[in-house]
Each structure stands twice: as structure tokens, then as C-alpha cells.
Amino acid sequence: MLGLLTAFIAGGFIYFIYKMTYRGVLYSPSFNATLLVMTMITCLVIMTISTNVVLSLGMVGALSIVRFRTAIKDPFDVVFMFWAIAAGISSGAGLYFLTLFGAVVVGAVIFMLSRKKHTDTLYLLVIHYYEDGNDEVRRELQQLDYTLKSKIVRKDVVELTAELRLKIDNTAFMNRLNDIEEVRDVSLVQYNGDYAV
């Protein structure tokens, strides 16, 4: 009971930290609840296999055939999964102080990292324009810190995608681009390197 209670407290703390520090697109309450339950289940597994060597070998064999196919969208979610498993292992092994102390230390580190301000932000700039406006669009883009990601030409319409780094939310350049007569539309989307936000 003490092991399960420790796992529950550590899992609840992980749940709280995940909810407080989540910075992704769509918060998933079910994933967060999974972290709490995963901590307790891992504790039960470790308590079970620590009492019997034969049972532990059978458990390892049974767990080796399980395949998890859920895609992790945010790489930082993997950290929370390993944290939940580690807390479950340590509480299942009877290291209650280590479980709670480790949860506080890891939680403090994650909380500090989540509060760190980034000096610049990545954006994707998507421009649709007629081919006649190529020079004017290029001239305007040269004033920005950008990397060309793709350029698609369909008949006389061009779709240009560029990666931008903006230090502040100054989007006045979008109005200048939109004022070019050949430009049909301009879109700016926040980008974290893996997927658009």
C-alpha cells in the first residue's frame, strides 16, 4: 500500500507538472491521466517481479511482445513517459524517499525549462502571387532573415514557402507584401521545426 501510495503521489505530481508546463498545440487530458496510471502500474509490475525470479522472466517475455503504436507528437512527451516509468520503478522497489525527491528535482528542472524565454521564434511564411511579381516579392524578402523551404509554380501562380526567424511580433512586412499588386495572399504560421502550430 505504501508503494502504491508513493506512486500515486509521484504520478499526481507528474500530472500537475505536465499540465502546468504544456506548450503544445492541443493539450490531451487522457495522455496526462495515462502518466498517473502508468506510474502506479509500473510500481505494481516491479513489486510483482521482485518477489519471484521465474515470474519476472515470464513478465519480461510477456511485455516484450507488446507493441505501442501511438505516435508521440511532442518529443518532450517522451520525457514525461520515462519519468512516470522511473517513478513507478523506484516506488515499486521500495525507494520511497528517492521517488519523491527525484520527482521534486525533475519537476523543478522541467518547470524552469518551460519558463525560459526564447529570443526568436520560427514562422512559416506562405505567399501566393502571380509570376509577374517575382522581383518585387524577392526584393521584400531580402530584408528578412529567411530560408526558402519550397516554391511551387502552377501555370502563372507561384506558391512560395519560407522559414522566418522573428525576434519580436513585428508583422508589418506582411502588409508590404500584400500591397504588391501581383500578390494574392500572405499567410504566417508559427513553426517549431517538426509541425506547424
Question: What would you say this structure looks like, in words?
Answer:
The mean pLDDT is 79. Helix 1 packs antiparallel against helix 2. The protein has helices at 2-21, 29-49, 53-64, 76-92, 96-115, 134-141, 172-179; strands at residues 121-130, 146-154, 157-166, 183-190. The two termini are 43 Å apart. It has a four-stranded antiparallel sheet, covered by helices on one side. Helix content is 54%, strand content 19%. Strand 2 (146-154) and strand 3 (157-166) form a beta hairpin. It has 197 residues and is of the alpha+beta class. It holds the Pfam family DUF4956. The chain crosses the membrane at residues 6-22, 34-60, 80-113. This is DUF4956 domain-containing protein. Keywords: Membrane, Transmembrane, Transmembrane helix.
Summarize this structure briefly.
Helix content is 54%, strand content 19%. It contains 7 helices and 4 strands; from the N terminus they run αααααβαββαβ.
Ordered list of secondary-structure elements with their pairings:
Elements: H1 2-21, H2 29-49, H3 53-64, H4 76-92, H5 96-115, E1 121-130, H6 134-141, E2 146-154, E3 157-166, H7 172-179, E4 183-190
Antiparallel strand pairs: 1-3, 1-4, 2-3
